[in-house]
Amino acid sequence: MLSFTSTELNTWIASFLWPLTRILGLVSVAPLFGNVSVPARVKLGLGVMLAMVIAPTVPAVSAMAPMSLQGLLILVQQLVIGLSMGFAMRTVFAGIEMAGEISSMTMGLGFATFYDPQSRGHSSAISQFLALLTLMIYLATDLHLVLLSTLAQSFSSLPISTGALSSAGFLQVVSWGARIFSAGVQLSLPIVAALLITNMALGILTRAAPQLNIFGIGFPITIGVGFSMIAVTLPYLATPIGHVLHEGIDAIQQITALMAPKAN
């Protein structure tokens, strides 16, 4: 007759529940997986499927009741780890979307906004275009699979334990957030530089011919130059966007390594 103790039952539940919590934390935030258009049942099913594959490879955890105070603290800890990893990858997409916002405002298309289902807000047309382009590069280079592989490896670099997480990992998450602004400025710099030269030329033209209606010709010229620069730079955007996406994977590995509890 099959029999097992309550300790064994708690160990089995905890060995599946705790990895599932970290996985669901990443799936709920990470690009593509965490999109609001993806049904919650699909996200939950994906998390359970990944947990069934990853949980047997996770190092053994100490036997304790999952619903005890210490077990709930570990549950919250795993959720924070998963959210931090997903946030690191989401930061890359936010930086690229910011590049689109900067380009749109410089071109004079700041009013052309649409509803963004990812952020549940309104973003510019150029921003959404770059976000879709980034998502295509993200899928074409299999970085969504690399992200899941990094998640599986995180259980070795940052195993499930009762120790408190190191504050260095959270500091790295905050520092990585600054990449939104630097990536946004770097990717939009060619368009901003071309439009700056265009505006300077229009300013000189206005001084030379004061009777010229600058508002009548300036707006279509800046929009035309902006779209021309997007068309020129578009074939070369795959390299810098891919580089920033790989930086996001590296940031996840650094965060998990720095979060590891310090040995006493």
UniProtKB/TrEMBL annotation:
It is a multi-pass membrane protein. Signal peptide: none annotated. The chain crosses the membrane at residues 12-33, 45-65, 71-89, 96-114, 126-148, 160-181, 187-205, 212-238. It is found in: Cell membrane; Bacterial flagellum basal body. It comes from the Bacteria. Keywords: Bacterial flagellum, Cell membrane, Cell projection, Cilium, Flagellum, Membrane, Transmembrane, Transmembrane helix. InterPro entries: FliR, T3SS_IM_R. GO terms for biological process: bacterial-type flagellum assembly; protein targeting. The keyword Phosphoprotein does not apply. Its main location: membrane. The keyword Transmembrane helix applies. One of its GO terms (cellular component) is plasma membrane. Belongs to the FliR/MopE/SpaR family. Role in flagellar biosynthesis. This is Flagellar biosynthetic protein FliR.
